[in-house]
Design goal:
Low-confidence stretches of chain B: none
Number of strands of chain B: 11
Largest interface: A-B, 25 and 22 residues
Number of helices of chain A: 0
Strand content of chain A: over 45%
Number of strands of chain A: 10
Mean pLDDT of chain A: 97
Helix content of chain A: under 10%
Shape of chain B: globular
Largest sheet of chain B: 7 strands, mixed
Oligomer: heterodimer
Structural class of chain B: mainly beta
Strand order of the largest sheet of chain A: 2-10-9-4-5-6
Order of helices and strands of chain A: EEEEEEEEEE
Mean pLDDT of chain B: 97
Helix content of chain B: under 10%
Distance between the termini of chain B: 40 Å
Radius of gyration of chain A: 13 Å
């Protein structure tokens, strides 16, 4: 199975900060990578697919990049509603593994 | 509007069985692959199983292979997960999720249902 490793596991940031989360695949997955946001007690929400394509309705402050094994999720200016846990997922092959998550907390 | 509504989970004894269902509406169910994803209390997301649009292909995480069976009824617009030989480590919120168009990840999710395996 392809292992997905996110970093950092958690961090604190302030509203307005630019934040970057990294996701690394244990083998090449082309651009078959999605990013999800999850808030406590809620289902995950798809933010980005194909590594860099914004899902309809997702604010443009979110962006994704990368291909192969290294990927990033960037929030250009953190808003209060962005404090959540973020997960990457590869869908290059089965089993479709998730990263362990990155929790973004308020500083 | 796409809706995915999971059936109620519940408390099951170790070694027991439970079948989850997920009723889909708002899209042409038979055109999309579907997945189950779970989340143990306080933990991250774990992909569990997927099924192709026709139901002809199924996929499982190693942790559930041989114990769980995914299926679908495209006439009833319903996805199922039959869980047998349940273990304490299967305790989690289980989400059903819809595959997006042509490699777009999981674009819609149900609200989740809690399955607790305990004596």
């Amino acid at each position: 199975a392809i292992r997905m490793t996110q970093s950092p596991s958690s961090f604190s940031a302030s509203t307005g900060d630019r934040v970057t989360i990294t996701c690394r695949a244990s083998q090449g997955i082309s651009s078959y990578l999605a990013w999800y946001q999850q808030k406590p007690g809620k289902a995950p929400k798809l933010l980005i697919y194909a590594a860099s394509t914004l899902q309809t309705g997702v604010p443009s402050r979110f962006s994704g990049s990368g291909s192969g094994t290294d990927f990033t999720l960037t929030i250009s200016s953190l808003q209060s509603e962005d404090f959540a846990t973020y997960y990457c997922q590869q869908y290059y092959s089965y089993p479709r593994t998730f990263g362990q998550g990155t929790k973004v907390e308020i500083k | 509007e796409v809706q995915l509504l999971e059936s109620e989970g519940g408390l099951v004894q170790p070694g027991g069985s439970l079948r989850l269902s997920c009723a889909a509406s708002g899209f042409t169910f038979s055109h999309y692959a579907m997945s189950w994803v779970r989340q143990a209390p306080g933990k991250g997301l774990e992909w569990v199983s997927a099924i192709s649009a026709s139901g002809g292909n199924t996929y499982y995480a190693d942790s559930v292979k041989g114990r769980f069976t995914i299926s679908r009824d495209n006439f009833k617009n319903t996805l199922y997960l039959q869980m047998n030989s349940l273990r304490a480590e299967d305790t989690a919120v289980y989400y059903c999720a819809k595959d997006g168009e042509a490699a777009r990840g999981l674009d819609y999710w149900g609200q989740g249902t809690l399955v607790t395996v305990s004596s």
